[in-house]
From TrEMBL:
Transmembrane segments: none annotated. Keywords: NAD, Oxidoreductase. One of its GO terms (biological process) is aldehyde metabolic process. One of its GO terms (molecular function) is aldehyde dehydrogenase (NAD+) activity. Pfam families: Aldedh. This is Aldehyde dehydrogenase. The active site is at 226, 260. It comes from Nocardiopsis algeriensis. Belongs to the aldehyde dehydrogenase family. It comes from the Bacteria.
């Protein structure tokens, strides 16, 4: 997987660990007192968060620029505006999502009524990564609050400016009795994971996910794991390769490729590879100019460790475009690699950076086999004019989501749940899926004592006729 922090957690100093324990106890107390349950409280929190995104937009943009060289436009479309839309959509539908659902009662139990009601889980922990540090912290928080929970957020230490801004802003804009931010890295996460939570929502790599899952066992805490993986993009002959290349370049090189659903590699079927590679090079120039380092629209690699990991992958194929890099500036040019073989280094792990390998496959059967020989990806993309191909890919491969004709953007459809399968994660969120994730659905049967129809079921059942 892309990144793992220290495998050996460092012990946390006494006061800090005690402070974390005290914070969780305080939040649990607030939840137990019923503070977060009224729908009015939930709506108020969401509106406050909405206001925060407007009022504090400059501070958030500044932090994202510092952490990832993210342009203000990209910061808005992929992070701040994204969360604002999620809040808007949630506020619009919350009442209907929370409404009890009636369920028919079988004749044998009539007269009676059955329904499901949603109840919040309690105090939840959200651990988020560095690549979309605003979006991936606040979008889960929207769901947690909308469902009526108290929440602790642990932003990533690898996006320190954003973590600091969130730690400063959230307690000021939201109810500090029910929402807390714990800053720090592995020791703080470890201390948090020792606490009792009612749900853990983790976004990051699959190796740390195993640590989180093992910790959840102690309190039998349910969890959502939003992970990554190698998301393939299948390209069939006969499609508009120039348009395909532009869409792939957009999906891949946004945020310098550090996107969990970025197309990780291309499976170019038949004779598509040569033209596609040429068109990819042209698309990169069209988007970022002759020198992408000078483009205000192109981001940077998060740190030296990831920079070194990525530059070591550059000789996995023939450089079609890009390849340039500067450690000082944490810059790696948008790079397309051709003639990549399935067993090269770049194909061994999630790229999670601006390197797009193109692998040639003879036909759709080979593409499907290629995907199925590997872990289930977070997304699968395909560029094809054939409905038959779409149907085959849908039924013969497994992935968290699918995008035909466009990568990444399925995330921006508010009604679509977002989550992985297998190694790319478990559980989902966004829209009503967030309410499902952060609530318990309680089944209720309500039967009047009279008439006492249950007498038919009581022993002695052999006296059935006399009871009538
Ligand atoms: P990261 O290094 O920021 O780690 C994520 C979080 O885990 C951080 O808050 C970190 O402090 C915490 N953490 C690290 N080690 C820990 C440990 N030993 N115990 C407890 N907590 C620990 O981010 P990352 O893992 O590099 O993120 C990149 C990965 O995340 C990629 O695989 C990417 O595909 C995936 N990702 C998935 C999604 C999604 O929504 N499915 C979104 C973004 C990223």
């Amino acid at each position: 997987q892309a990144t793992v922090q220290s495998a050996v957690p460092q012990p946390l100093e006494g006061t800090a660990a005690a402070e974390i324990a005290a914070t969780v106890t305080r939040l649990r107390g607030a939840f137990a007192a019923g503070r977060t349950k009224p729908i009015g409280w939930r709506r108020a929190q969401l509106r406050q968060l909405q206001r925060m995104l407007v009022d504090e937009r400059p501070a958030l943009e500044k932090a994202l620029l510092a952490d990832l060289g993210k342009s203000p436009v990209e910061a808005h479309t992929t992070e701040i505006g994204f969360v604002a839309n999620e809040i808007e959509h949630t506020l619009r539908h919350l009442s209907s999502w929370l409404r009890p659902r009636r369920v028919p009662v079988p004749l044998s139990l009539a007269p009676a009524r059955a329904r499901t009601v949603r109840e919040p889980l309690g105090t939840v922990l959200i651990i988020s990564p560095w690549n979309y540090p605003v979006n991936l912290s606040l979008a889960p928080l929207v769901g947690a609050l909308a469902a009526g929970n108290a929440a602790v957020l642990k932003p990533s230490e690898l996006a320190p400016a954003t973590a600091a801004v969130l730690a400063e802003l959230l307690p000021r804009h939201l109810d500090p009795e029910a929402v807390a931010v714990v800053e720090g890295g592995v020791p703080e996460s470890t201390a948090l994971l020792e606490q009792h939570f009612d749900h853990i929502f983790y976004t990051g790599n699959a190796q740390v996910a195993r640590v989180v899952m093992a910790a959840a066992v102690k309190h039998l805490t349910p969890l959502t794991l939003e992970l990554g993986g190698k998301s393939p993009a299948v390209v069939e002959p006969g499609v508009d390769l120039a348009a395909t290349a532009r869409r792939l370049a957009w999906g891949k090189f946004t945020n310098a490729g550090q996107t969990c659903v970025a197309p990780d590699y291309v499976l170019a079927i038949g004779d598509t590879a040569d033209t596609l590679q040429r068109e990819l090079a042209a698309a990169v120039t069209e988007m970022f100019g002759e020198d992408p380092a000078a483009s205000g629209d192109y981001g940077r690699i998060v740190n030296e460790r990831h920079f070194d990991r990525l530059t070591a992958l550059l000789d996995s194929g023939t450089v079609v475009t890009g390849g340039g890099h500067s450690r000082e500036d944490l810059y790696i040019a948008p790079t397309v690699l051709g003639d990549v073989s399935a067993d090269s280094a770049v194909m061994a792990e999630e790229v999670f950076g601006p390197i797009l390998p193109v692998v040639r496959v003879p036909d759709l059967d080979a593409a499907i086999a290629f995907v199925n020989e590997r872990d289930k990806p977070l997304a699968l993309y395909a560029f094809t004019g054939s409905e038959h191909t779409k149907r085959r890919l849908l039924t013969e491969t497994s992935s968290g989501g699918v995008g035909f004709g466009l990568p990444v953007a399925h995330l921006a459809v508010p009604g679509l749940p977002f989550g992985g399968v297998g190694e790319s994660g478990m559980g989902a969120y966004h829209s009503v899926a967030s309410i499902d994730t952060f609530s318990h659905t309680k089944s209720v049967l309500d039967k009047p004592l009279r008439p006492d129809t249950m007498r038919l079921a009581y022993a002695p059942v052999t006296g059935f006729k006399e009871k009538m």
